[in-house]
Amino acid sequence: MRQKQVFCIIAAMAVAFGSFVNAGAAENDNAKETSVVYMTADISPEGLMSVYQSLGWTPKGEVAVKLSTGEPPASNYLDPELIKELIQSVNGTIVECNTAYGGARIETAMHMQLAEDHGFTAIADVDILDAEGSRSLPVEGGMRLSENLVGSHFGNYDSYLVLSHFKGHAMAGFGGAIKNISIGLGSQEGKCLIHTAGESHDSPWGGDQTGFTESMAEAGKSVSDYLNQGENIVYVNVLNNISIDCDCNGNPAEPDIHDIGILASTDPVAIDQASIDLTFAAEGSESLQNRVNAFLKRECGMTGLLLS
């Protein structure tokens, strides 16, 4: 197994999934299968539709589109005009969960108002999945979590299109598809469990970064398992407005990296590996590299990101 070839957060997810990724393609050591990542440099509604259609995926039943509604006043959430055509083409409902750390998305009514303010309710219905509490998903083989608590409305949808804005993150180093299906789909209780590696249902504070990233991996795998990875869930990462700060930060650092493109895959590990590879290779990525490599040195015992 080529665990040393992958980024620490992705490695945790790869261990959970039993797959390892390299340069945007994932190879299962047992089945020798390759996960393909499609890319376009055209960051437009047409480009988004094109790369999504490359997947050849037909969603079934009720379709959820998971994205981040963004923290005010100035986070880099996805532009509703960019994603409108895609969401409406699948007759999707935008889904989100409330936060556990305060801010404008900690309570459902406030969160819905923010979704309206940011233009999301104008393009699709919006459902706050944990408006009525949590439901439990089993975590098979977890070392950190015995269950993953997602919003109680999670099971109202048959198919999930995970639409992620790729960026940095203060605690995880970066945020993409893995973060969007783990901490992003976690209810308030679920977010607390992930942040504390299963220790608390009530507070997100006090956990360490290794426990956090490993819990993200386990929570993400529970979602993928439930939805039959690649069958009822697919992933799109948009690599634009790439700040070192997450969209949960209402006042993020200005992006230093030029817009790169849009990626699509049925594999969350492969799409995040491809995203970090492309981002690190881009002009202006030094600040993000410093953030991620500081995380690697502290939590993974590495002195730099291993890309091959």
Gist?
The protein has 308 residues and is α/β, with parallel strands linked by helices. It is 32% helix and 19% strand.
Q: What do these coordinates show?
A:
The chain has 9 helices and 14 strands. It is α/β, with parallel strands linked by helices and 308 residues long. It has a single domain, classed as Rossmann fold (3-Layer(aba) Sandwich). Helix 1 (8-17) runs parallel beside helix 7 (209-226). The relative contact order is 0.19.
Q: Report the sheet-strand fraction.
A: 15-25%
Rg value: 17 Å
What is the second-level CATH architecture? 3-Layer(aba) Sandwich
Stated plainly, the CATH topology is called Rossmann fold
Largest sheet: 7 strands, mixed
CATH class: Alpha Beta
Q: Give the total of beta strands.
A: 14
Helical fraction = 25-40%
Ends distance: 14 Å
- How are helices and strands ordered from N to C? HEEEEHEHEHEEEEEEHHHEEHH
**Count of domain modules:** 1
State the shape: globular
What would you call the structural class? alpha/beta
Write out the strand line-up for the largest beta sheet, numbering strands in chain order.
Answer: 4-14-13-10-5-6-7
- Determine the CATH superfamily: LarA, N-terminal domain
Number of helices: 9
- Identify low-pLDDT runs: 1-7, 19-32, 302-308
> What is the typical, i.e. mean, pLDDT?
85
